[in-house]
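Open question from group meeting: does this chain pack into something compact, or does most of it stay loose? Before anyone orders reagents, we agreed to write out a predicted structure and look at it together. Recording both the input and the output here so the notebook holds the full record.
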Amino acid sequence: MSAEFGDQRVIKRLLHESRTWAFVGLGDNPERDAYAQARLLQGRGKRIVPVHPAAREVLGERGYASLAEVPGEIDVVGIYRRADQAGAVVDEAIAAGAKAVWMPLDVVDEDAARRARDAGLDVVMDRCPGVEWALRR
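Structure tokens returned:
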């Protein structure tokens, strides 16, 4: 994977200046990575928005079945789906007017990342928000 989607300035800005993170794939299972990362960011003052087909409430926040249903601005879309599904989520993020997409560890789709970047979104790929937060306090 190229380093172009791990720009430290972008990572720092997204972690510290963003307000709303939509977590695609966030369900109510506390054993899943999406849950742990959402809880971590929520604890640091971010509004989290669960996006999951079941659209359940998670961490006290109303869930939505798709990004298109999320009201208001989305600063960052965290893509907690398999890498082969990341492209479709990136396309939804672009259509929803998100400002950035973040693909966590092992979620790598360089074509989708380039589409997002070409559409004007910031992109972070193959990085863990929790690890990055610990490195940038």
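Observations to bring back to the group:
The chain has a mean pLDDT of 93.
The helical segments are 8-17, 33-43, 83-96, 110-118, 129-135.
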